[in-house]
Description:
By secondary structure, this protein is α/β, with parallel strands linked by helices. It folds into three domains: 5-95, 3-Layer(aba) Sandwich (Alpha/beta knot), CATH 3.40.1280; 111-169, tRNA(m1g37)methyltransferase, domain 2 (Trp Operon Repressor, Chain A), CATH 1.10.1270; 173-317, SPOUT methyltransferase, trefoil knot domain (Alpha/beta knot). The chain contains eleven helices and twelve strands. Helix 1 (5-18) runs parallel beside helix 3 (62-68) and helix 2 crosses helix 4 (84-95).
Amino acid sequence: MVFAAPQLKDALDFATAKFEGIRPYVVYPSPQGALISQETIETLVSHEHVVIICGHYEGIDERFVQKYVDLEVSAGDFVLTGGEIPAMLIVDAMSRLVPGVVGKTKAVIEDSFYRGMLDNPNYTRPALWERLEVPELLTGGNERDITRWRRRESVRRTLTRRPDLVARASIREYVSGANIAVFAGNENVNLSGLPELCEAYNLGRPYIIARTHELREAMKESYPAAKILGDIRRVYEVFGGGGDILTVKVSAIARKNSMHSLEAKRKCLEHGGNVLFVFAEDYGMIESLEGICSYLYADEVNIPLNVMIGAGLDRFLGKR
């Protein structure tokens, strides 16, 4: 019970002709495919024409797969009779991303998985049902407090139910504030692109720590968009505003008591407050700081500081 390649090719040719000869992107639901994710759906939506080939029982001739299928996907680790139900799932998920299908774009953005995290709990009237109440905060009308509650509950659910999702989620929206501090050992330190990185990740002006007056003056001239300070304690005063700050020391290689970046992301989400990412060419300059240490690559390689900063921010704050 295997679909034959010639007949499938005829069907694909017929579909292609209806698309004015433009070759469609061909998807084949199969237990051997990659697990469907929100990223998969967003990729499919980016294509003008998509054809889904539905197999049945044992599937389709592998030669057709090799020659014409662009993406093999699986709906999960279970077996179905055919590919029709996964095809419906794909079409439904794609449709939600087409402008106008869902009334409010914001509703799509706040759904589970779109940002890489699970959605927060949702409630409606009545406020009291079978002795269960809607959280009082949600009925108070304070939009800022409600937004904070939703993000906090989204973090709690994700960490409890699907901690694996944290690896591909950006934590920027789930911490109160985030910024970076860079220790400059000399005036030749390479920080090219630093202001652009901070703007891209919505961090505000970066902090550069320079311990001598001469170095501070040189940094002011080279990086006028940064805040030049002489001591990390001043960063905590200016950035924290008296609040609790979680310090993440980022190293290019594994150090003593290093924490993998995924575990460090979980710590940031659990903390919820301000997070300061600290970088230095010489790790000894930041080793004594209190906080968690994350590493980027467990390999003895020399990574330029500006590259390490870009890679480190992407690990924590980059979009899925």
